[in-house]
User: Fold this.
Amino acid sequence: MILLWGLLEDSPLALVQAALQRQGAQTFVADQSAVRETILDFTVGADVRGVLQVGSRTCDLSRVTAAYIRPYDSRRLLRGTDAQEGSAAWRHAEALDDGLSLWSELTPALVVNRFEAMAGNSSKPYQALQIRSSGFEVPDTLITTDPAAAEEFWEQHGTVVYKSVSSVRSIVSRLMPEHRDRLADIQWCPTQFQAYVPGTDVRVHVVGNDVFACEILSDADDYRYAAREGAETKLRPYTLPDDCAERCVKLAVATGLLVAGIDLRRTPDECWYCFEVNPSPGFTYYQEGTQHPIDHAIARLLIDAPRLSATHC
Amino acid sequence: MTSRATFLVVASSWDAVSRSFAERHLERGVRLLTPRDLSRVGWNCSFGKMGASSQAVVAGRLLGDREIHGVLTRLSGVNEHELPHIAAGDRTYVAAEMNAFLLAWLTTLPCPVLNRPTPRCLSGRWWRQEEWVRAAGHLGIPILPVHRRVRLTHGRRPRAASQPGGTTVTLIRRRNLGDADPLLITQARHLAQAAGTDFLAVRFAGPSPGSAFVDATPWPDIADDVIGEAVMECLVTARTGRQESQEAA
Assistant:
């Protein structure tokens, strides 16, 4: 049995479910739109046993061999007059998210991906430490509350981008002269600046040992938001050099991720920089642009999952 | 040359125990650092081709990473309630940014950090009771199964019933504080090692060997004089050891 946890209108989840069905796998969907009708009941002892019930459907959790999880905050999905903060439905949604995330940490099933592994993405400089260990370059970076230090870094590197330190509001923007007046605001919160790295973006999806690379042609500072800048983005399949592909797999393994979306940039002198490892990649955009069978590969990974022992011990 | 020692306690502004601990050990160089302090000019953390370095602002003083000699982390994470001085609409974002910054900064500090943060908790290993029980069970430590049931009418998370007469083993590095059965101490050490946590309070159902494991926390009670003093000894000893090895080198 393969458990899918999330919203069926979430395109990666829907594509993986369809791929699993095409391959004849038995699935159980913990659909977050039915949070009120969901019951979770399990016991943790020498092993983890219990059931997950969604409406009239029941899943024996000890029969789950793999799980693909892309949950949203269930509290935010509640609708209706009884859904306000602190209500019984709100507390239930909160407890359900906590319970299922706990189960996903403890189950011996293969989980794409465990929260413990995904958590490293919550801090970009923390993740940069992991990235450097895998052999990729990371841009010169300054995180500061000192406007003078930011000015000095800017002067030293010529072209500089700023972006969030966490995974929240993660949009990359180039520092421009008109931003100078706002630099004083960084005294309130450490702000991240990075030397601009010229080159071509390559998005890599690692699925187990499979590597799917996609070259991105865009003039925008952050191609994901090219439309906001009035820029265009084109995607095309790309073949990574073998050593670079190996580093991508090594990085995914080092971060504990079975599926990862890795953001690379190839400089004109063929140096590879890595900016981020996305632990829950929304791969559908890249799959549509390249026809890479990422959904099929994830489904295969889930189907072939051996019964692994829990990661804690 | 011996410089004046500076030790930091990273804690919530609302953590009276940590504030009291810092005040009690002020003369030994202990200073409190709260999320509010991250809104001061002078913080720097840099890495890349130019190498890695950082600078903190503590009690109005700029401190390079080599000028901090030890850290006690008592903060699980930064939340918006710590930041009344930030515009209300930005608090959640700023809290996430500060948390992410502290995770990286505390991870890279060259001095001893009790406990070194993990991505899920700035104070070390943050496991729910069930995760501790599972880890203990895998180590062969007797456990009591934990049951969790979530349904709309009974949505509150069940709490473990208090178990009077239980025994707590507090570990700091390899040292055990207080009296406990040697087997329980050994089991607690194995659990701390499995969790990668230096400073841990491990609770058992009773004092005798064979007592079941109940729970563990990376926040032992530093209001306790014995535990508080042990923290200081650990940090000071680590600093002295580092100085000696630097001088020998």
